[in-house]
Amino acid sequence: MKYKKLVSQIESLPPLLDTADIVRRLYSDGMQNVNLSRLTLAIESDALLSANILKMINSPFYGFSRKITSVSQAVTLFGSELIFALVVRFSIQTNIVANLRAYGLSNDKFNEICHLQSRLVSDWQTKVDRHFAAFLSPLALIMESGKLIFSKEIALAGEIKEFSKGLESAQSITLYEHELFGTSSYYICGLLFEHWNLNEEYIKILKALDYEHENIEELSTEINILDAVRSAINVKEQLSEASLGSAVEIVEEMGQSVDLFLSAAKNLKKMRRV
Q1: Which is nearest to 172 in space by CA: 253, 120, 265, 246?
Q2: Which of 32, 87, 154, 274 has its CA 20 to 30 A from that of 198?
Q3: Which domain holds residue 131?
Q4: 127: helix, coil or strand?
């Protein structure tokens, strides 16, 4: 029953904001084929979207010593992939207003977790495979968005305290979501992407991050990278010894360098203390 309510929430969401939909169409032939000049003009035509993108880009998570002051500068520095994620993230935040108390988070803390996940993918995979870094860093920024849908449903049902108590003792966040909803927030995020006709590969990966969804062999590396990142940084733990230990097990199974992963994680941990 709760699964149907979650799906109903998604189906009732309005279309993407006008500017966001224009941006989506610019990406219809693939991220590598986006006309950056047209992308810049589309974003600049929306003052609120422009302001929010610049605000996100100038957050400490991206580590720029100087302030980014224009959309064209942001597009040049970050490329079409991350700009796409920032536009989608703004649309999600605009369309889904949710209290994240069920997950024990403020909105600021939730945003921090999402940016940390994206930064970890970027810093780690840039040293391994730049293709994965460019492709997955944007997805990592928005892959937790299904929790906004979950939080809204939990609040409407008046079950915030019960959910929070169960989450505290749960060993797996995804398994716990499954026990209560029959699905995970990642699968729901995939349905959200389908509702808005967003990137098909992202949809496949998000659904495959679900506990019971069939894994996709050709995307196994992408799925494992995100699995390691969400193990290291999640709503319960961020770069703790225990969460990094769980992530390292996944990295070892992938056959990738644990040292490179831990180096990126430790640098990110230092950045958070500054």
Answers
A1: 246
A2: 154
A3: 2-273
A4: coil
Give me the helix-helix angle, 36-44 and 47-57, nearest 10°. Answer: 110
Written as six digits, the tokens of 94 are 């605009």
Residue 203: name the closest of 135, 108, 115, 139 by CA: 139
pTM of the model: 0.90
Tens-digit pLDDT string for the chain (274 aa): 588 889 998 999 888 878 888 888 888 777 777 888 888 998 999 898 899 889 888 887 776 778 899 999 988 888 888 888 888 888 888 888 888 999 999 988 999 999 999 999 999 999 999 989 989 999 999 999 999 999 999 999 999 999 999 999 999 999 999 999 999 999 999 999 999 988 889 999 999 998 766 667 778 899 999 999 999 999 999 999 999 999 999 999 999 999 999 999 999 988 776 5
Residue whose C-alpha is closest to residue 235's, from 150, 131, 134? 150
- Running DSSP on this structure, what letter comes out for residue 178? H
Query: Distance between CA atoms of 208 and 103, rounded to whole angstroms?
Result: 22
- 4, 5, 98, 223 from 164: Cα distances, Å: 22, 20, 15, 27
Q: What is the DSSP string of 60-95?
A: GGG--SS----HHHHHHHHHHHHHHHHHHHHHHHHH
Report the number of distinct structural domains present in the chain: 1
CATH code where residue 25 lies: 1.10.3210.10
